UniProtKB/TrEMBL annotation:
Source species of the chain: Xylanimonas protaetiae
Name used for this protein in its record: GDP-mannose 4,6-dehydratase
Name of the gene encoding the protein in the UniProt record: gmd
Segment forming the signal sequence: none
Enzyme class (EC, first level): lyase
A Pfam family recorded for this sequence: GDP_Man_Dehyd
Function as written in the Swiss-Prot or TrEMBL entry: Catalyzes the conversion of GDP-D-mannose to GDP-4-dehydro-6-deoxy-D-mannose.
Length: 328
């Protein structure tokens, strides 16, 4: 039975990846941080087969201890401070966890594997945020990186450190440069889920207004369930490498609002949505559009959920949840 170790187990991707690996017959271990993490129960209910170990990306010895207990063949480093807006307010912490945390995880993997590095494979959750200021459209593996946030800068550090461990030590290490991916499990601080929750509540008469930031930014949005499959495929290749994972379609926040409100029968949302400075970013990533040709050709990976279906999936989930919460 292959064994996998996942950091970021309580997050959106950690849950989908656990489900996928359990289906494939893996024994799955997840890293849980904190003294009494309230999300532990969520993981136990959503993926009961996962075994939880404690540790923190900022603490190398805790990572090494967890790896020695799990004895994994594959390590998926999904843990991070992942909310871009928060990273300006907590730049030091983001650097420590999202950036240096990658070095800690790589070094723990190297120490755990000892003399035989071929016993373990490593996946790093790199991000399209690394492209930042638009240099080339669509963005591909070779596009110049120009990050625009402390989060993006930290991800670039982790990305190159992962390449460096491959080149320095021969570790089978891959980075997935994943574009935005969403689902009903997406945190409510991210724009798609903020919109799907608000649209559901407005449709049910529970809320009157939605306050957002920049409506002009464009994102290449896919379904998280598809994207975790690309992670697994990367670790099944003979060599580690970098891969863009994206749908090849881009939409603005305005498009998202059109599709989301349209789904509940509201064609003109202009009186329901306002903008506020507090949700604007000091530096914006204006346009993300990925070219996933390499992932398609080498990994045989393709996305299966189109943008309107993704939005519908999230709104249906939120309608059901909001009805339940409101006792409707
Ligand atoms: P989430 O924000 O949903 O999950 C982040 C996870 O990281 C949580 O489990 C969180 O644990 C954990 N974490 C935070 N701080 C630490 C720490 N100090 N030590 C250990 N774990 C920690 O992210 P996603 O699931 O959406 O994303 C997974 C990864 O992929 C992240 O690295 C993200 O940056 C990256 N990524 C995501 C994309 C997306 O569109 N979703 C696109 C490209 C990259 P806790 O619950 O305890 O806070
Ligand atoms: P992003 O996702 O920054 O791309 O990072 P997010 O959903 O936060 O923002 C997307 C775009 O929407 C604009 N926006 C708003 N965003 C939020 N969160 N809240 C608002 O009210 C709002 N109004 C407008 C933003 O300015 C931005 O342009 C996500 C994270 O998952 C990262 O961890 C990951 O690496 C990247 O996707 C790829």
């Amino acid at each position: 039975m292959p064994r996998a170790f996942i950091t970021g187990i309580t997050g959106q991707d950690g849950l989908y990846l656990s489900e996928l690996l359990l289906r494939k017959g893996y024994e799955v271990f997840g890293l849980l941080r904190g003294q009494n993490n309230p999300k532990a129960q969520l993981v136990r209910e959503a993926v009961p087969g996962v075994r939880l170990l404690t540790g923190d990306l900022a603490d190398l010895s805790s990572l090494l201890r967890a790896l020695r207990a799990a004895q994994p063949d594959e390590i998926y480093n999904l843990g991070a401070i992942s909310y871009v807006a928060y990273s300006w307010e907590n730049a030091d912490l983001t650097t420590d966890v999202t950036g240096k945390g990658v070095l800690n995880m790589l070094e723990a993997a190297r120490l755990y594997a000892g003399d035989d590095l071929s016993r373990v494979r490593f996946y790093q959750a790199s991000s399209s945020e690394m492209f930042g200021k638009v240099q080339e459209v669509p963005q591909r593996e070779t596009t110049l990186l120009w990050p625009r946030s402390p989060y993006g800068v930290a991800k670039v550090y982790g990305h190159y450190m992962t390449i460096n461990y491959r080149e320095s030590y021969g570790l089978h290490a891959s980075s997935g440069i994943l574009f935005n991916h969403e689902s009903p499990r997406r945190g409510p601080e991210f724009v798609t889920r903020k919109v799907s929750q608000a649209v559901a509540r407005i449709a049910l008469g529970l809320q009157d207004e939605l306050v957002l930031g920049n409506l002009e930014a464009k994102r290449d949005w896919g379904f998280a369930g598809d994207y975790v499959d690309a992670m697994w495929r990367m670790l099944q290749q003979p060599e580690g490498d970098e891969y863009v994972v994206a749908t090849g379609q881009t939409h603005s926040i305005r498009d998202l609002l059109d599709v989301a409100f349209g789904y509940v029968g509201i064609d003109d949302w202009s009186s329901l949505v306002s903008q506020d400075e507090q949700f604007m970013r000091p530096a914006e990533v204006d346009l993300l559009l990925g070219d996933a040709t390499k992932a398609r050709e080498r990994l045989g990976w393709t996305p299966t959920v189109a943008f309107p279906d993704l939005v519908a999936m999230m709104i249906e989930y939120d309608l059901a949840e909001q009805r339940k919460l409101a006792g409707l």
